[in-house]
Amino acid sequence: MPRGLTALQESSPEGGGSDYIRNIKLLDDREFTTLRFLTDAENLYYESFHRNMVDGAFKGFKVCLKSTGQPCPMCAMKDNRPSTQFLAWVYEYDHFFQAPTENAEEVTLGKSKSRKAYKRTVNEIRLMRYSNAHRGGLVGAVEEYDTLTDRTFKWVRDGKRGSTRPTYDLRSLKEGAIPDELKLLAETLPDLEEVAFGRTERLDGAPAEEQKEKIEKYATRDVSPDTSVDGDDDNDDTPYDDDEDDGPF
Ligand SMILES: [Zn+2]
User: Fold this and answer.
1) Are 134 and 243 in contact (CB under 8 A)?
2) Structural domains counted in the chain
3) Beta bridge partners of 87
4) How far, in Å, from the CA of 74 to the mean position of ligand 1?
5) In this structure, what are the phi and psi dihedrals at residue 80, rounded to the nearest 5 degrees?
6) Residue 237 domain-assigned (yes or no)
7) Residue 145 in domain
8) Which of 85, 182, 203, 239 sits at a 20 to 30 Å CA gap from 19?
């Protein structure tokens, strides 16, 4: 029996919930993920964003229209200064949690195998979307290797859950060219500008408008409107990464 939007989307012919763009998200101290960049340094997308607050609720980020040369109504709002973020496509391999987590198995880390972690195999495309303040690791990697795409990396959070000032460390893991199948997959991904402007929220680049229609269609079938629409099983109730932790950028 369908349990809301996610279930409906999963059973839909298009393949469903997993098609929604999901962000790399590290929420706790020492949580990390292993990944590969599909977007190289010269194609990272930088843009200035406002937090889109609707009735006090965070509804994702909106591009500051000033950066397109237009007047920006959001700039006129109180306490909503725009901030720069960078966007990149990555392929996430494994996600390591510090505490027992659903769909994650206990593993040991480090040379002495004395550190425990909980590993979840992901193997999916993710959007890396962070405040410009966190670009340092990427800049360092490019200085070192001239590219982001010739190796896998570990992306580690330093900063306990809820911290207003976490930092992120990018460490080289293993050198090696992008596997062909990932290269092909990367070519099918929507332009980062389309994502930044909210014109698509899906990996296949389907227009966001179509998605809204779908949601309306499901809503009329008595499906709970509270259900996640991004197929995320992490109690995430928006398709966006509310990077609340980072405080003012
Ligand atoms: Zn603005």
Assistant:
1) no
2) 1
3) 45, 129
4) 5
5) -135, 55
6) no
7) yes
8) 85
- Note the pTM of the prediction, 2 decimals: 0.78
Which single residue is written with the structure tokens 């494994």? Answer: 94
Residue 28 belongs to domain spanning: 5-221
Using an 8 Å Cβ cutoff, are 85 and 130 in contact? yes
pLDDT tens for residues 88-97?
999 999 999 9
pLDDT, tens digit (0-9, with 9 covering 90-100), for 104-127: 999 999 888 889 999 999 999 999
**β-strands 45-54, 57-63 pairing:** antiparallel
Q: Is residue 186 part of a domain?
A: yes
Distance 46 CA to ligand 1 centre (A): 15
Separation of CA 223 and ligand 1 centre (Å): 35
Q: What are phi and psi of 17, to 5 degrees?
A: -55, -35
Q: Which amino acid is at 77?
A: M
Residue 89 belongs to domain with CATH number: 3.90.198
162 within domain boundaries: yes
Using the mean position of ligand 1's atoms as its centre, give its distance from the Cα of residue 84 in Å: 11
